[in-house]
Amino acid sequence: MNKGIYVATVESNSGKSLAVLGLMRMLLGKTAKVGYFRPLIDDVQDGELDNHVNTVISHFDIDLEYEQAFVYTRSQVLDLYNQGKSGHVIDEIIKKYKYLEERFDFVLVEGTDFSRENVSLELDINILISKNLGLPVFIVSQGDEKQIKEIVDNVQLTHDSFKEEVDVISIMVNKVNPADIDDLKIELNNRINNKTTISVIPKIKNLASPTLKEILNQLDGRILFGQDMINAKIDDFSVGAMQLRNYLTHLKENALVITPGDRADIVLGVLQANISKNYPKLSGIVLTGGIIPEEPILKLLEGLTSVIPVISVKEGTFEITNTIGKVKSKIYADNTDKITTSIATFEKHVDTDTLSDDLITFKSDIFTPRMFQYNLLQRALKDKKHIVLPEGKDERVLRATARLIAARVVDITLIGEVDIIKENIKKLNIALNIEDINIVSPITSPHFEDYVNTFYELRKHKNINLDMARDTMADVSYFATMMIYKGHADGMVSGALHTTAHTLRPALQFIKTKPGVNIVSSVFFMCLEDRVSIFGDCAINPNPNAEQLAEIAISSAQTARNFGIEPKVAMLSYSSGASGKGEEVDKVRAATEIAKKQVPDLKIEGPIQYDAAVDMRIGKSKLPDSDVAGQASVLIFPDLNTGNNTYKAVQRETGALAIGPMLQGLNKPVNDLSRGCTADDIYSTVIITAIQAQDF
Q: Helix or strand or coil: residue 434?
């Protein structure tokens, strides 16, 4: 039974981090407890952490101390080898790996980075480690600025070297010229004629470009302004040495400006250009020569509402420019944009279904929130949908959109004033390319008059005239909802800036409910430590009657089934079974009977208390013959007051992730957000909306 995988390469700058991040995300989506191990790390300064180890442990929140994830630094291994203690190195690595193997269901092991020296020694060490740990190998190579034959020869040599000692389960060639991908795949499959899966990844600009943080670390500089934008990517750089009027014509998108520290004219001109609509967005300024701008200039910069990072370095302009040109892109723990892009790129180009089936030869009994979220993402990726977000100017919406576009999981339309949205993207330094999204202002849309006429025809029986229809359709919520009605989008997510009523009103007016459905309700996906439960209705209906409560239960059970959760429905009340009396418990009892009659095969229990619904010991003591007690996956609350408070209490006290609310019962998916939502909430809700849209 496989309990781990070894990720190896034989050259520097291979993009191995992309493979590690993608594999870790895939593994956490398939099994509950995944560990990480990097036997040999690069030398680090005192007080610093290995970037690979820190990034993986912190981003994926792995239950592992930093010191438990590695054994030796590069220098320590070389010293031990020179002393003839290579056996001691392997023994210690095996000992630490076995400890992790006992703690985790699966362990991802990352090999060395490869320096330009001792390449043959590093290859031997990686082969020796993978052999002694008994792990199949995932080989990463890179094709940057290489001919196809050179890439294929290098991959075959690496494959054959490992294959003599261990199984090679997969090969990934990274940073390939997109024009060479098809031919390279053919050549690799001809050369590597076995069951090894082969993936080819194109060179991704966002990953190839270093960030300002990487450049700052390389230059050993001091940041004067713009600390919060230190992860801005650098696509280009140029020296500001000429007159400002001439230099402005050389500015490019996401460029870094290098200029002596006493060139106040360049500094101020560049900052002004960055906020101008007529010039591209810039990433930062490097001031050379150790010269700090004079006090009046610093005071001016401090008073600006938005300023790109400004860095001061001691070296001269020529030396700094050469150093910046040699900086290689890395991925840091706090650079979520690069991490998200890496994972999305891996999932797009690697056959993760086949790879996970080959690797994970056991089935986990636990269904974790990560596994649930991974399954959601995979489902959304299989049938890409178009989601409209009416609150396009909001920062949270824009940050969520950047993540969604990076993950390539949906197509997005933002509603709002085009200039304002573009200005906010630039001002907030959000990694979002305008070309990747559709921005629509209702009144200037070519569909506006058609939407007005459609709304008029749908609502004229309510005494709506054309002028009223025109005013109504200028509203972003109505316009976005009409996009769904007309088939120009598949679903809508709103509520970050608007009330629930504002979001729902247009949907109820002309999208309407599904046949046979009388009530729109909501559920939250409550991602607890070892399971995912569905809570309903916690957002829409204040005090449903018995018939409505039964319909909410049936809709919620269907939602659970649609999202891969076996529905076991608990109709919650203040008593369990037949003992309780009172108007509220009688309502729950009646609702349970109605649901049973309408869906005879539904596993449902009610009335039942919360503890009896979720705790097996208590459930069996109170309702020993129940199929639901102690194992409920769908919990239906008797009213909004109980449901809303309970979901928030569980969320806050347990640290559970609450995804939702997701609305049920409409003819097309429209979902409402809390006005206190985060970008993460919006991201998750959009993915759920896209999955809902697949059923229409």
A: helix
CA distances from 397 to 145, 377, 494, 662, 682 (A): 38, 18, 9, 17, 7
DSSP classification of residue 510: I
* Domains 369-511 and 521-665 fall in the same CATH topology: yes
CATH T-level topology, domain 212-325: 3.40.1390
Average pLDDT score over residue span 399-404: 91
Decide: helix, strand or coil at residue 511: helix
Question: Residue 401 and residue 682: Cα distance in Å, rounded?
Answer: 9
With 0-12 / 13-18 / 19 or more C-beta atoms within 10 angstroms meaning exposed / middle / buried, residue 111 is buried
**Residue 414 CA to its chain's centroid (Å):** 19
Instruction: Please give the CATH architecture assigned to the domain spanning 521-665.
Output: 3-Layer(aba) Sandwich (3.40)
Map 133-194 to HEC letters.
HCCCEEEEEECCCCCHHHHHHHHHHHHHHHHCCCCEEEEEEEEECHHHHHHHHHHHHHHCCC
First and final C-alpha spacing in the chain: 41
Rg (CA), the chain: 29
Delimit the domains of the chain by residue range.
4-204+335-359, 212-325, 369-511, 521-665
Is the Cβ–Cβ distance between 356 and 22 less than 8 Å? Answer: no
390, 406, 354, 694: CA torsion to nearest 10: 10
Query: Would you say residue 360 has pLDDT above 80?
Result: no
CATH fold of 369-511, please? Rossmann fold (3.40.50)
Helix, strand, coil percent content, the chain, rounded in steps of 5: 50, 20, 35
The kind and range of the H/E element at 439 are: strand 438-440
- Residue 589 to residue 452: CA distance in whole angstroms: 47
**Structural element, H or E, at residue 48:** none
Q: Structure tokens of 526?
A: 């409550």
Tens of pLDDT, residue by residue over 85-120, are 878 888 899 999 999 988 998 999 999 876 655 667
Fold of the CATH domain 4-204+335-359: Rossmann fold (3.40.50)
Tens digit of pLDDT for each residue in 145-170?
889 999 999 889 889 888 888 889 99
**Residues found in the chain:** 696
Cα torsion for 94, 97, 101, 104, to the nearest 10°? 180
d(CA 355, CA 25): 13
Give the integer Cα–Cα distance in Å for 229 and 141. 32
For the record, the structure tokens of 618 come out as 């208590």
d(CA 263, CA 247): 12
Helix orientation angle between 317-325 and 212-219, rounded to the nearest 10 degrees: 130
Distance (Å, whole) CA 574 – CA 584: 9
As to burial, measured by CB atoms within 10 angstroms (0-12 exposed, 13-18 middle, 19+ buried), residue 555 is: buried
Cα distance between residue 154 and residue 173, in whole Å: 10
| Whether 596 contacts 627, CB under 8 Å | no
- Tokens at 217, concatenated: 């670390």
Mean per-residue pLDDT of the chain = 88
In this predicted model, what pLDDT tens digit does every residue of 611-631 receive, in sequence order? 999 999 998 888 888 889 999
Q: Residue 313: beta bridge partners?
A: none
Q: What average pLDDT does range 434-462 have in this prediction?
A: 91
Give whole-number Cα distances, 144 to 14, 15, 183, 237, in Å: 9, 10, 15, 21
